[in-house]
Amino acid sequence: MEAALKRAGRKRGITAEGDRLRDIFRGDYAHQPPLVEDALGKQTHALLVQLEAACTATDDLAKAVEEDFPQPPDAEIILSFPGLGIQLGARVLAEIGDDKTRFADARGLKAYAGASPITRASGKKSSITRRWVKNDRLNHAGYLWAFASITASPGAKAHYRRRRDGHNDWHAAAQRNLFNRMLGQLYYCLQHHTLFDEHTAFPTALAAAA
What we know:
By secondary structure, the protein is mostly helical.
């Protein structure tokens, strides 16, 4: 107990506090009747068996993705984008699909992913809000993608900083804007069978960063 308190940053009264906590954990009031503890133990063991099976299935699925994802023709294009590895890239491809005619243009894909905002106007008033109706799985993958690309791409980092500093966006709004831009670039590259190019994607952002 004293070692745990030291690791937590405590500096004074460690011995007395350790003794107090030890007495609490050894007290009878921390226990349930034997039958209740036995039933809870069996229930916990059953949950652990389910958790172990879920972890094994997750590991098997990740291994299968590692082996199969590089085979589709679009995999090379997706993996050329900063922040997209095999696992995250497979999630993006699974939600977008390989049908090049599924979305009429990049705006349709952005709306489907929830990356583009909605502008509502009534009279002289207008408001811009984020989309609530979207593909949640693709939207979550996009959040991770944008977060990773900030570190992997100088242009993405400069774009994110410009949204935070120049447009006073909150962190989530700046990431969503970055995801929106990256998704548009991915749509273009998939349609034209070209790989991601940093200087083509962020010419202004790179110049500003320099």
